[in-house]
Batch of 3 targets.
Target 1
Amino acid sequence: MERFKILINNRLYITVFSILFLFSLRGWAQSVTVDASIDSLQRFIGQQARIKLEVSCDAGKKVQLPFFADTLVTGIEIVSASQPDTTYLNNSERILLSQEYVVTSFDSASYYIPPFEVMVDGVPHRSQSLAMMVYPMQIDEENPEAIFGHKGIMQISLTWEDWTPLLWKFPLIVVFLIAMLYLLLRYWDNKPIIRKVKVKPKLPPHEQAMMEIARIKEEKSWQKGDPKEYYTELTDVVRIYIHERFGFNAMEKTSAEIIDYLQESKDKEAIEDLRQLFMTADLVKFAKYAPMLNENDMNLVTAIEFINRTKMEPDPDAKPLPTEITIEEKRSRRTKIALIAGVVLLSVAVLFLLYLVGTDLYNLFF
């Protein structure tokens, strides 16, 4: 009797365990569902049908949908395939992936569409199979236009956007043509290039020397304890004046050579004063002689008096020097080549723009 009770209890446990195991298997099996549907099982040749594939599984699983190139099965062509769409369910615990295929067929037949295979975490899952019946079009041979009549020509009104591509091309063509015409005229006239150059009139030697002496006098370098710089600048001004006034290079001659050359001048007193100026300058520059302040002023006055006594007065009948001269330059070969190259480039640009305009007009009206 005890054994019988134990046996019954064991069988009861086994039955309950089996039921729970079966339910768990069923729940696991239903964790991934793949469903395929078609909007209509019957179609005429050339009509389109929509096939929808849906995959439901737990969130976080890796789902790989099937890939088709351009044919679903032999005889059924894929017109388009949408991007997979994901919808979260049960507080984002599960996901629903859906993808839609637009298909068509041009052969009348009954087609069998095998199950779609979807990979979820590397495990294949399949949908149910589908079927589609494609019927031929019934055409009345005696009246073949009974179904589809002739369509009239539709007149489409042009909008502003249709004319926009042409608007920027015409002004550009006009600008290029004007530039090309200008370059052609420049090439054909072959006139020399005329330039106006302003000339600054050169001051007479005595005026230039007086300006420099005025600058030296204003700077008063001898009062700053530098008599060597003062006498160097002063004698250089006198040497430059002698060079431009008497026509020999006094800058490269010694003081004695300059005095000997100027002995031919009638103003002996001015030459003697100049000799004293050069002597003092040589002593300052080479013997470190320190002249007195009144001696510096006297030598400055000596230079001014020498210039005033020996300056050449301007000829009142002489024509004034021009302040502007005209230079004519012949057009070089390089300039001609540049003009021709510019004309060629502009011609190519104009032809290209005309081609674009013709293409746009053809697309608008034909």
Target 2
Amino acid sequence: MIEEKLYRKQENMLRKLRGVRKPLVEDIFKRVAYLGPEDFKVAGYKRTKPVAVFNPGALLHNDRLLLFPRMIFDYYKYVSSIGFVEIKIDDLLDNSLETPIEARILMWPRRLWEFLGSEDPRAFYNKGSYYLLYTGKGFYLDDRNYYRRDVLAFVEYDSSWKLLRKGYFTISEGNETFIPQSNKDSAFIKIEGDKAVLLTRPEIRGKHVCWRCVARLSDLTIDGETLEPILVYEEWELKVGWSTNTVKLSSNEYLVGWHGVILTDYAYRDGFAIVSEEGELLAVSNYLLSPQGLTEEYGDRSLVIFGDGLVKYKELLIWVGGVSDYAIGFFVAELDKVLEKMRWVKGHVT
């Protein structure tokens, strides 16, 4: 049984991998800008002003920053869509952004498995196509009954943003297929042909740790044998998850953001990991980004800075994150200063 095998791996690594990090916060990021829902005007939709815009995926294309924010227009049902926004990165960095910024809705719930929302995208560019991994918050139907489930969803667009395909990942091993109650917080590391190396976070029996795996893109299937936990929650945390897309540093080093949810105050605090092209954990930091002050600490879900975009621009690292589930924050640090905070852990497990 796939779930039982994954549970045993998880329990084993919860014992072996703990102790790598400390509950220390050293926030090294400069706050460059915040964009709230009032700073956007949505084209092509009857309602032009969302009530919340947050948790954006991001990609750098020449001198422009492509943003894929989670957008909410409905207060009571909290149903999310995924938008598209394009800004000049130099306008962001020199504080000359003009608002309102035009946005459009790129994707909205259209399937049962995302009926309650399309959430928290992570963007990846591959040979002329744009890929988004996101959370499909929805239902599955069994014997005329609806049951809640969050799936790891995938969508592909061509260079003109024409939708090519859409679906969600399953886990398979032999003739068995398994879909966790929740799978989210995922990012591509590399893609070669049909093979994709992923960072992902399936919920296994109520626990949330960070995994790596190999998947086939042709049928959106994760090979269950390749799933391995590589980063786990520490004793002071409720859970951990991957926060951002990956950023390539060298031929075999990829930087990715992660978050830990703190037991004592339920806050989201963020750090970084370096992984190999196969998803092996090479280095990890303590918390380097944490919500500060009224703007970041107070919102529909307070005390949160959450992914989803990570961009390397010249000597800078830009974290484009959701702020307490209502706005977008742009956080900038020198890449070298982030790398100085990394602790190399390859060979930690014996």
Target 3
Amino acid sequence: MSLRFTFHNKRIAGVLTVLPQKEVTFEEEMENYNFSPAKSLKLKMAMGYEKHRIVGENTNISDLCVFGMNFLFDNNLLKKEDISALILVTQSPEHFMPPTSNIIQGQLELGTDVLCMDINQGCAGFVVGLVQAYMLLEQQSIKKVVLMNADVLSRKVSKRDRNSYPLIGDAACLTVVERSEESATIHAVINMDGKGSHILQIPAGGFKLPCTSETAEMKEDANGNFRSPENLVMEGDKVFNFVQTEVPPMIEELLSISGKTVDEIDYFLFHQPNKFMLNKLADKIGVPREKMPANIVENFGNASGASIPTNISFNLGENALTNTYQVCFSGFGVGLTWAAIEQKLGNLMFNHIIYY
């Protein structure tokens, strides 16, 4: 059984996705992979690789987040004085210390009464961050919470790793969360299993294995990919089995708690590791594929915790400003962590994509 959460009188007020202007196609990078062109194109078709968004070498997550926040301020979509907390969910921190959320708070010149919090989470980071935001809103002193999901993991993935680099993307998403007069109930479930943490990791760079000339050395693996211990290592087959085994019963549990059926959920807006994995997951859960969009990786790349809010901005767009949907969010991956939320989503103040 999952760890369960229930919330009332809370809502998502708006979603802003900030994407890098730089767009790179799969064909432009194909020569980096130790693979024949025919096999590379077959991989592209199977996994849904098309293009992805990558930041420049001097762009950090604070740049994306501050740019997005200033867009909201300048367009009167959010007031500085209404912000009580910044929650940053990232695995691309700018320093070991200080927390990057404090850096963002300082650059925005927010008040000293704004709570800043960094959460080290990846693929399930939107759901974990949303649960934290809802918990903060239980306190009367909290007005609005800005959940920031931001990663620039393209810098930590080897460009010669055909298993990971074609799917990775960079992005920052800002989700404004507030109280609501509507009494709709929100249900959430979270699971974590550190015994599987090794199947998605960056081995070097922390205190256990600091970066050295040796950790920067690129080596070829059994499948012909080149990477160093400073790069992301993903055991793809184990990740696939984990998702197909653990996520369907979690969604079944969540729907049982909420009293909803698959047919009563308008959209299953899930983390998108790749098109193949998500389509298989939809089939296993019994969700029509049109209700579980799988088009983020092929258009923008997988930006870890930012993939779900990017999903909201891209696939619901302006319709979410006037319509209301019953949705299920779910993220799964690094940790290992798998989590889901069922709630209403709609009548948003904003739901935009902008480019940095």
